[in-house]
User: What shape does this take?
Amino acid sequence: MLGFILKRIALLIPTLLGITIVSFGFVRVLPGDPVLLMAGERGIKPERYQKLMEQFGYDRPIWEQYFDYLNQLLHGNLGNSLVTKQPVVTEFFTLFPATVELSICALIIAVSIGIPAGIIAASKRGSFWDQSLMGTALVGYSMPIFWWGLLLIIVFSGWLQWTPVSGRISLLYFFPDVTGFMLIDSLLSGQKGAFTSALSHLVLPSIVLATIPLAVIARQTRSAMLEVLGEDYVRTARAKGLSPARVVGVHALRNAMIPVITVIGLSVGTLLAGAILTETIFSWPGIGKWMVDSISRRDYPVVQSGLLMIAIVVMVVNLLVDMTYGLINPRIRHD
Amino acid sequence: MTDITNSPSALDVKRQMRRQMLADFWFYFSENRGAVIGLWVFIALVTLAVFAPVFAPHGATQQYRDALLVPPVWQDGGQWKFLLGTDAVGRDMLSRLIYGARFSLFIGVVVVGIAATTGVSVGLIAGYYRGAVDTIIMRIMDIILAFPSLLLALVMVAILGPGLLNAMIAIAIVLQPHFVRLTRASVLNERGKDYVTSARVAGASPFYLMTRTILPNCLGPVTVQATLSFSNAILDAAALGFLGMGAQPPTPEWGTMLAEAREFILRAWWVVTFPGLAILITVLAVNLVGDGLRDALDPKMKRS
Assistant: This one.
């Protein structure tokens, strides 16, 4: 198992280097001179320009600059935001918990509804239930989630006035940042109503973010179950006289879960991409909104390093999924 | 040696076989009721888009200054002149939606066209030549796939500058690795088979082998991927438009319309609801067709 993990990590190194080349190249392919770009519309004196060129090393050969960039990355230095002057790493880790909290809630919704829906559809194949569940799943899969979010705001925040329109918690509450997760922190603070407020802010964004992964998981569970239900060992289990619930729930489900876990792992990328839209609609202060705002503010160091860090997060999660996969299915380890 | 492939009887057999394959395909495709409905909706959308000036009651950017935010006809204050109401500057929603179909379908066709042609060619080369070429190509694809697609497209558009054309290029780039992977996998599967070997022994050039011998046998999964990418392209382009990075106002692109409508969300539900509904219907129709194609082209599904 250790060898399997090490091999997987070794395979990631070329991709990781490639990702750094992309994020390095990003600033270099921008039209115009990077120093002039930083100076903005105020302009810059020639002496100062020369000094900055040397300070940032833009006068040296490109490969030297790249190695310099790699060196900086290895020391954890990802540059400072042009707007807030804060290190990008600090900003990233301040905002990241908000995105993680939202993504985890979305994933819980997606898994806890998607898998049962897929199982029901598969075990009653061709029935009314199957058709309506899979029809709904296809609608969810085709959903423009930025519109879906706006629609939910119209209904639940506008007409019914059940949920707030934006943010993570009502401004009435203030408590120290312990874990960075608003749900846990609000509980720890012991303030009355804080948890409910945090929860009511979280409901709509999580539903929106969960929509596409939910549909994908339901569809995948159904097709994986259908495949497994046709296998010989399932027929044997049925022939032994086991109850249908036991055949489906124990014998079939365990083997059907392998492709489903892959899909769940892959949906982390979908969640992060979805977070860009969901966080923008609900003004959720996470990294998705941070990236969109930085792009529109032309805060290039943030865009550059944010892109890099998000790609690394996706890679690490995929590695973890691969390892779980290896744990569940020993055959894969020996490939 | 006589050339038997072009003798009249062989041509007849070929034509007959092709007709039989098409009939088979239609048989399996039409089994899926959803797919047939999706196909009809899609044809209707294409018709609307092509004949937009005929169907649309008003111009897409024509402003009626005395009719701002008029609700749809069935609501109080609605006018028969504007069936689905008007937006904040008095443009007819229905007409803008009809013209918007042009953009979405155009985006789908162009993006899938670029992504599929480049992706399939690169995948053919990687799968046929193997070795170092394959490794380099696949590593590059891994790098593209390491980024969440919408984020990468968004950043690329930020570099290239906002606009519909740049958005389409960016989306084509992020969708193209899927075609490469899929094509490469089928080529790897096919290249060792006897018919390929015999064609090679008969003296076929690598180019002929790749494009004429192997490619036709890999097209099934590529077609399914193309429909999937078509709906993804429409969704991503609308998302970029919504974020202000795609088509720019006053273009009646559906995502851009939603972005413009956002501030009226609690005052005028129709300016937000209809453009999104149009995106959903289009994407749903394409996905229904995609599901039907997968069932009809995947031999594994046929048996069950």
Notes: The mean pLDDT of chain A is 83. Residues 244-281 of chain A form the longest helix (38 residues). Chain A touches chain B through 45 residues (CB under 8 Å).
